[in-house]
Amino acid sequence: MSDTQKRDIDAATIAAWLREHPTFLAQFPDVAMAIELPREQGKATSLASYQLDVLREKNRELNRRLQDLFAVANENERLTVRTHQFTLALMRARDLPETLTTLVASLREDFNSQWLHVLLLGDVALPDSPWWRVLPRQDPTLAPFADFLAGDEPLCGRVQAQKLEVLFGADAGSVQSSALLPLGRYGILAIGSDDSNRFYPGMGTMFLRLMAQAVVAALARFDPL
């Protein structure tokens, strides 16, 4: 066995022993101070200094994570309050037109929605509005939405031009991302943005689902369709 192999074995044995006795360096601080560890750049540093640097970096990373969690918690709290107020406003509406007007106003003012449109399915007389329209359930323009209407999950991201024209009409060319909320048998609520990153596949949809459920409950009060 060569001297190099002996040194490797001895080093491995020492390392293993130190792992089994983690308090050794605390008992012999002079040894700890004498040990030098290489930096990725620059001079070697003492073990104590190295450990301090590691702890500082871990502390900075934990602070960054706490700040991120705090920001998410604050945003979720704001969304919870707004969604609650949104639901209460819908419940106060006295008829179907007022329900739809309240829906549009809340989404635009409280949720900064740029473009939105309520597509109602069935047969009901409503005042003309750029914010909603009624289509027969068998209207051929609804064919591309068949799978979406059969489910109960919001759809976020970029939407095909053909669908955008049905949902947003003349504003379709300005919509870069959208959120589609299924309203059960009543239709679709479409929210659009000129920011391609505002709505994206994989984003959290809990608040969108809650809002959709509130709209369905509000429409059901008048059973319009």
Q: Topology of this protein?
A:
Elements: H1 3-20, H2 24-27, H3 29-34, E1 36-37, E2 45-46, H4 47-92, H5 96-110, E3 115-121, E4 132-135, H6 146-150, E5 155-157, H7 161-168, E6 177-182, E7 187-193, H8 206-220
Parallel strand pairs: 3-4
Antiparallel strand pairs: 1-2, 3-7, 5-6, 6-7
Unreliable stretches = none
**Domains (count):** 2
- Supply the helix-strand structural class: alpha+beta
- Major sheet: arrangement of strands: 4-3-7-6-5
Q: Report the portion of residues in β strands.
A: 5-15%
For the residues shown, what is the average pLDDT? Answer: 87
Distance between the terminal alpha carbons, to the nearest Å? 90 Å
Q: In CATH terms, what is the architecture of the largest domain? A: 2-Layer Sandwich
CATH H-level superfamily of the largest domain: GAF domain
Q: Give me the CATH fold name of the largest domain.
A: Beta-Lactamase
Q: What characterizes the major β-sheet?
A: 5 strands, mixed
Number of strands: 7
Q: Classify the helix fraction into a percent range.
A: 40-55%
Radius of gyration, in Å, reads 31 Å
* SSE succession: HHHEEHHEEHEHEEH
CATH class of the largest domain: Alpha Beta
Shape: elongated
Put simply, the count of helices is 8
